[in-house]
Structures are given as structure tokens and as C-alpha cells.
Amino acid sequence: MTKENKPRGSSVLRSVSSYRNHVKNYMSESTPHRLIYKLPQSKNEDASDGQAESMKLDTLLENYHIKADSLRAALKIQLEQIHQASRALNLCQSMQEFRGSREEVDAQKALLLSTERKKCIDQELQRMGICVQNRVDFQPNCPLGTLTVSHISIPLRRDWVNDNINKTDRIMYYFICLLKYRETVHATHMVTSDDGKQAGRLEFTNYFQFTHLPPDFRVTLELYSLITGREEIPHEMKYHINGDSLKKMKCGTVSIGGPSGLMDTRFNMVGQLDICLETVQRTRFNFEKMQYIAPVQGVVILNFRCCAENASAVKESGLLNVFDDSKVPHVWHLYYGVLAEGVLKFWRFPEDIQKEPLKVIELQSCINEHVRAESEGLSTRNNLIFLEIPNLESSENTTYKHIFSADNDEEYIRWVDSLERALHHTRLWRVDDGMKTGSIAL
């Protein structure tokens, strides 16, 4: 028997069958009616499969053309920026006052970013084209996640720091980090060797976020450096502020465009590293393809977060019998369960979901991959489901099983499928607190 709480405090005893009828009536009233047609099996299944495959290919091609048009527009912008940066470099190098200046370094940086972004867009277009040729979806599938990078620290060589800490070298190093994933390229601010030698490390405090990542993502971190002479011409003399105008500055012939006007950046890659879901909990990595052209140790410390992006992707609701072993003899309670946001909650009635739930289970704390339970030793009931979690109240390494039972095979299959997909989703992107976080030395 179940008891329903009325607004005025009265209670009505109900049989289990009347309770189920009450829930079904409530759900039918709150859910729009749908007409479901069950068509007879086609005699020509090959033709039906071919039609479905053709529709799938049409959708793939449509998505490809939309994404490709967007990338080609972005590619056009990067090409224009490459021309602009090249013209700025030509202008700086044609004037004695701007050779080796910060303005020239900024133009070198702009040329580096545009060139690398163009390369990544070209590679993404090529990847998408190969996927379409093989009739494979080029877009990421669930479960998706987000990688956030908030701080990058690169130690400098100790011998170089000791030799230069108390003197001003005529040589200046400029450093910048690029983080790449497919067509997306994030760039840090520039840091000089003067900035780093006091602390003994290069500090990049930028905040970057990569969204809609599949579990097999691979983000590349690259460190670039530019070596140039220290700027010695004062700002006033460089811009002729004291009387001379820019028009009076002697300059050589400047190329104003065209293929002959394009230039290559003088920023060179020092090292790179790939970051993936399998490596985010490691604490130390070395640069790959290390080029010893700058006074860095080849190690990077990276602060990041990695978490599931759409925990509500899997949803389910319905009646479940919940096993209660806190009483003797053990009893079963018929509850209304809702799976959403990676959490399984239970109420007495569906209309109670605005109230505090009677039972809550966080799927991120579950340690079992499969939820089908054997009935032997548990109950004479069929269609058993279990969720196993660590027993935090015990000093020993023990676990506790939450046991449920579905009323029929159809509901059982539905709940098993939803729970196992949700467990798989949360497990892919989970650490102790449901979020991959920490420090990683690259």
C-alpha cells in the first residue's frame, strides 16, 4: 500500500495497482498524445536501407558544404592578414629607425598567427574532405567535453639565468605559445627574456577554452621564439616627434603587395606537445621535437580543467522499484525516478519533482560499468538493476549497491541502456570530483 499526501494533511491509502494507474494517468495528461504508426515490413529491405543511406549521405554533404564555406571565408581573412603583416614588415625593414623595433616584432607575431591559422584551416578542410569521401561524419559525437587552460609556465635554463640576471644583454628573446585544435588556434601574449629571467621562468597567464571536444581530442601546444637585437632608438627619435614628420624619413623601396611581397615569419618553433584525455592526469612531460635555439629547459607547467560538457545528454524517467535494506525484513518501494544531468533522483509521485527528492545518486561516484544484476541471492524479482558506489562511512575499502527492479522487460531494457550510456559519458570525463583538474608538466 502507498500513502499520498494531500494539501490539507489528509492521507489516502492506495493499492500498488491504483498507484500505478494514478501515475499513468498523470503522465498521459502531462504528455502530448502522439499517433504511432507501425508500418509493415518492406519486402525490399535493400531498397529501404539504400534510401536511408542516401539520406544520411545528403545530410553529411549538406553539413560539409556549410562548414567548408565558413572555413573558406576564414581562410580568405587569414590570407589578407598575411598580406597586411608582410607589408608592415617590409615597411619596418626599409626604415633604419624600425629595424629590430617592437613594431617589427609585433608584425612578426601577426604574420606567425595568420600563417599558422591558415595552415590549420587548410588541414581541417583536407580532413573534412577525406571524411566525406569515406562517408564518415567529420563532426564530433557525444559525449563532448571542454578543456580549459588558465596558466602556462616554462622554466628557463639555470645557467643562462645566472649569467644574465645582473646584466643587460644586447640580444632579446621574444616568446609566444600557440594552442591548436583543428581549425582553432589560441595565442598567448608575448613574453620577453627580460620578463622571465627575474623569476627564472616564462609566465603566460592567458585563459583559453576549447569546447565541443570529443573524447579522442588532441590539442597541440607549441612554443615559438624570436631572437632580435635590443631596441636602442628612443621612441621620440623613432617617430620624429621633435619636428621631423614621417614623410621626411628616408626609406627604401617598399613592396606593397602581390606574391613577391609575402614574407616568412622569423619566429621559430622551440618545441611542441600533444595533450589528450589519456595524459591529462600526468604531472611531467618534455617537449617533443625540441630545438635548442632558446634558453628554456624544455619543460612546461600547465594549469587546466577538463570536464564533461553536456551531462544532460542522456535523460530517462519512469517507475522503478527501489530496494530498501535499512529495515528488517527488507522492503521494496515503488518510486518515480528521473535521470538527468548525470544524477538519478527519486520521488513518491511524478507531480512531486518540484520538491526535494527522496533519494539521490550521483552517477559520477558509481564504479560499475554495467548495471544488469543477477537475481540470485537478492530477490525473486526479475529485471534487476544495480549501481555500486564506494562506502564512505566505512574505514575499509567496501562498496554499497543500490538495487532497483523494473516492472517489465521493455522498461528494464530502456533503463539499462540509459544508465549505461550515462555512466559511460561521465566516466570518460571524470576524475575524483567529476572534473579532470590539476597541474601537468609538459
From TrEMBL:
GO terms for cellular component: actomyosin contractile ring. SUPFAM superfamilies: PH domain-like (SSF50729). Coiled coil: none annotated. It comes from Trichinella nelsoni. Pfam families: Anillin (PF08174), PH (PF00169). Residues 313-424 form the PH domain. Signal peptide: none annotated. PANTHER family: ANILLIN (PTHR21538:SF23), ANILLIN/RHOTEKIN RTKN (PTHR21538). This is Actin-binding protein anillin. GO terms for biological process: actomyosin contractile ring assembly; mitotic cytokinesis; septin ring organization. InterPro entries: AHD, Cytokinesis/Rho-signaling, PH-like_dom_sf, PH_domain.
